[in-house]
Amino acid sequence: MCGIVGYIGSRDASTVLIKGLKRLEYRGYDSAGIALINGELELDYRKGKGKVSNLERALRKDSLIGTLGIGHTRWATHGEPNDINSHPHLSESGNIAVVHNGIIENYNTLKKKLIERGRVFQSQTDTEVIGHLIEEIYLASPDITFEHAIRLALKQIVGTYGLAIINKEFPDTIFIARKGSPLLLGIGEEEMFIASDASPVVEYTNKVVYLDDGEIAIVNRNSYKVKTIDDVPLTKEVHELAISLDAIEKAGYPHFMLKEIFEQPRSIADCMRGRINPENGTVLLGGIEDVMDELVNARRITIAACGTSWHSALVGEYLFEQLAKTPVEVEYASEFRYRDPLIGKGDVLLVISQSGETADTLAAMREARKRGALVLGICNVVGSTIARETDAGVFTHAGPEIGVASTKAFTAQVVVLIMMALELGQRKGILNRKKMKEYIRELSKIPSKVEYILEHNDQEIRKMASLFTYAPNFLYLGRSYNFPVALEGALKLKEISYIHAEGYPAAEMKHGPIALIDEMMPVVVIAATDHTNDKMISNIEEVKARKGRIISIMNDDNPEVKKLSEFCISIPSTSDCFSPVLTVIPLQLLSYYIAVNRGCNVDQPRNLAKSVTVE
Q1: Global pTM?
Q2: Which residue among the candidates 2, 306, 568, 600 is catalytic per the annotation?
Q3: Does pLDDT of 613 surpass 70?
Q4: Which residues pair with 228 in a beta bridge?
Q5: E strands along 238-299, which residues?
Q6: Each residue of 558-571: pLDDT tens digit?
Q7: Does the annotation mark 2 as catalytic?
Q8: Which CATH superfamily is domain 3-247 in?
Q9: Between the CA atoms of 236, 237, 240 and 241, what dihedral angle is there, to the nearest 10 degrees?
Q10: d(C-alpha 183, C-alpha 160), whole Å
C-alpha cells in the first residue's frame, strides 16, 4: 500500500525522492518523509503528516543535502497518521533509517523483548521494531557485518515487507529487501533507483530488476548484488520498461481519473490488438496457448479477485458459462484460503489484479498452486508478482492507471475475459465459425462505441451530476451481465464521492432494498441487455410507483425505458455479453462529476490506496 523510493548517485537525492514520492502517492498519502546521508556523513531526515506537497514545502524552508537517500509515502496500518508515526523510522542511535511497506505480524512480541533489553521506542508503528532489531544484532558482536545483521533480523520477522535501509556508517550503500511487498531496482549510469513500482524510475532509466520474495539487494552507486535471505548470490534478469513518462502524466486533464476514463477507447483497442482477427473470426491469446489443453479439459474454473477486479470476475462467470459452457465459481480472494477451498488437480484458478501485487489475491494464488491447481493470471503490470508466479496468463495492456478508483483496468479486464471465453468456446466446439465471426466483428467495434459514449454523453452526465451531488444514497440495479456493473457503479460512487450506494440484482430489489426507495432516492437502472429488457421495465415501474428518481442507462432503440425514466443516458447497442464494457462508462463519469462537485479528492480518496499489498 505504501510507496518506497530510494536513490544513490550524483544527483540531489532530495529532489529525486520528492518527485518519486509524488508519483507513488496513489499508494498512500497519510504522511511522507525522506532520510539522507549528507556530505558530512550524517544521517538527517524530514517527515510529517499529510501529503508529499507538505513535505516538499517544509524542505524548501529546511533543505536536506546529499546524494543518497530513501523516502516513503504512507498508508497507515499501525498507529494513526501523525508526524511521529511517519516514516522513515530511526534506530535508537539515529545511525539507521528504515522505510517499510507491509505488516510485521509479530512486532508486539519483538517490541516487548527489545523494551525489556532497554530499547526506547518513539512511535506506535510496527516498522520501528525493524531498525531497533537490526541495530541490536549489529552491535552485539564485531564479527557481524551490517548486511548479516539485516538478514538475521529478517529471519525473526513474521509478516510482509518491502524495505529500504540506510546506515550512516555505509554512506555509499542502500540495503533493500522484499517479502510480499513489491520492490524494484532501476539501473542508471553510475546511479541506482529503488521504488515500489516503475513510475518513479521511468524518467531516468528503462532498465529494472524486480526483487522476488526472500531476496535482499545491496545497492551501490554503480553496482548491485542480489542474494537470498540465506546469503546465496543470485543472478537477476534485467527487464526493459515498456511504459513512457507521458503515460504517467495528466496530459492536460484535471484528474488522472478523467484522463483514464477517456483513454478507454485506446486501452481497449490495445488490449485486443494482435489477439483477435475479425476477418476469419478467431482469437489467439499467446499467454495461455501452452495451457489451453488443460483449460479445455478443466473440471471447473474458479476466479479469485478483490474490489473492482472481483466485479470483472463476476462478468467472467457469465461469459465462461455462456460462451464456453464451463462451470465457474467466483471467490473473494480475501476469503479463499481461509475456508479450506475444494480445489486441486484438474481445476483452474484464474486470479485478476490490476497491479499484480494484491496481497489477498497472491495468497489465493499460492494456496491453489500448493493444492495442485493450474493457476492463470490477468494483470496489467509486466514484471509484477502475479505475472511471474502464475503458470500462464494474459496482460491487459491498459497502460499505467494512477487514479486510485479503477476505470480503464476494469474494462480491459472484462475484454480479456471476453477473449478468453471466446477462445475457450471455440476450442471446445461450443462456438462455430459463423458465430465466432459475429462475436469478433462486434467486439472489434467496442472501442469506437466507447468513444461515441464519451463524446455524446459527457456534458449531459456532467449536468445530471449537479442535480444529484448531495443525494444521501444511491441504488444501482442490473440484471445478468449488468448486475456486476451495478456493483461497480455503486463502488465507484462510494470510493470517490463518499455517498452511500448499493448495487443489486434488479430482481432482488423486492427482497429488501425497495423499502429504501422514496422521492429522495436516485435509482440507476442498467437497461441495456436485450434478453432481460422486459424484466427491467417491470423493475423501473416498481421504482416509479414509489417515487424513486430513475436514471436509466439504455440503448437508443428503447422507447419504453425512455418514457418511464426521469433521466436517460443512451448508449449504442451491442451483444449482451459485451454490454458491461459500454454500460460502465456512463457510471464512471457520473461518479467522477458528482465527486468533483462535492470537492472530493478524486484521484486520492480518503482511506484508500491503489495497490493493496497488505492483508
Answers
A1: 0.87
A2: 2
A3: no
A4: 215
A5: 239-240, 276-277, 282-283
A6: 888 888 888 999 99
A7: yes
A8: Aminohydrolase, N-terminal nucleophile (Ntn) domain (3.60.20.10)
A9: -50
A10: 12
